[in-house]
Structures are given as C-alpha cells and as structure tokens.
Amino acid sequence: MKEDTPRWTEIEHLPEWDEEFYHVYTARKLGKWVMLKTLKPDLASKPEMQSMLEKEFDVRYNLAHPHIVMINDLEDVPGVGRCIITDDVYGDSLAKLIREGKVTPAHIDKLRHQLVDALEYIQTNHLAHHPLRPENIIFTENIGNLKLIDVGFEQRDSLTPCDTATDIYNYGLVLRRALDSVGSTDATMRRVAARCLDPNPKARYHDMTQVHLALENRPVRRIYLTIIAFLAVMVLMLVWLSIKTR
User: Fold this and answer.
1) Nearest 10 degrees: CA dihedral of 108, 218, 162, 203?
2) 3-state secondary structure of 84
3) Where would you tag: which of 27, 32, 84, 142 has the fewest CB atoms within 10 A of its CB?
C-alpha cells in the first residue's frame, strides 16, 4: 500500500440497508471495500445513542459465524461520523429480491439452512437483536451467500421465552413471504412456517434448534427415542459381557 493512499474513498450511502437507528454506507478503507454503520444525524449527538453504538460493537466484535457479517473496528470516519466497520457484503437484500420477483429456489434453500444456522448461533450466544426482516438478510453479489447484517445489540445471561418466540415468529414471516414469492408448495416448509406463525407463542417451536429439526423432517421425539434405544442396547451388551466373563 502506497504511503499516499487515502484512508477513506468512495463512500456511498445505501438507503435500502438503513436500520432503525443507523445509516449504512459502503466505502474503501485503504483500498479495501468495507461497510460502515453510523448513527443517524439526529441521534449522533445523544450520549445514550453513542453508548448504544459502542455496546453493539463490543457485543458483536467477537462473533464468528459464516452467515453473520463480521465486525472489524470502531472508527471516526471523516464526513460520516463514528462508525462500526464491517466486512463488505455487497449484494441484494431479500426484500429487494421479493420486490423484484427474483427469489429463486437457491435463495429458499439458504433460508432453510444458512439463515436457521445463523439464528441458532444468535440464540446459543443469548444475543438480543432487532426483529429479523427481509431487509437485513443479504445475498452476496458473487456467490449468493446469505449474510445477516443486524444481529445483536446486547448479550444476556439468557434469552426470555418472549425473545425466542419473537425470533421464531419473524423467521416464519420471512419464510412465508419468500415461499409466496416463488409460489412454492413445499409441504414441510409451509408447515414449519405455519407453526412459527401460530398466534399462541406456546404452540410455536421452543427454539431455532427445533425449527432446524422440523425443516430436516427429524422430529425431536424420534431423535430422543433413537438415543434411548441406543443406550438400551449398550446396557444389554454390558450385562451380557458381565455375565459371560463370570
């Protein structure tokens, strides 16, 4: 890198990617493409919002998942303000793909696998986050990999039943909208979406692990029965060996 290379160039606001409290930009940092996330101008001078930005950086800095946008730094960017710096994930949001009628079976498959994996990781790490929406699900430009761009602002000792029920409900909304956009009649995915959207939170899946198993047609009860059967066989073998060696 040449010594006279500008630190920041080609800064561009991405209105479609804006979040509730933040503007989102794409830019080059020392020639490398990155994303910037900064407080909206009317919030930037408020100490409580500045604290929120820094807390989100602290919470997300150590996250490591292939389908979650990684955070690199917290830095003051000239003309923009204090920013969370993330990897570049330029591509199309699910919202845009739905709006333009460009959702494909490949996108649906990634909602079934990659998105569920990411949400499982979020719940396992007890991350409170803003509601899941098609706007914060991005499919990268080159290989169409799924990335979540708004994944947590607080890490707790545990999530409440309301937190997980809301996650599951919003996943159901996203999945149903995507299925509707391609006219999918996949019975398993329709059934999972319907249960996620049950008006009674207690009737929904308990967590994303159960959603994952349901999408794979692997009921939790069947897995438990398989484990119990395996343990029973092992016990019988141990008893048989014990009798044989007497």
Assistant:
1) 100
2) strand
3) 142
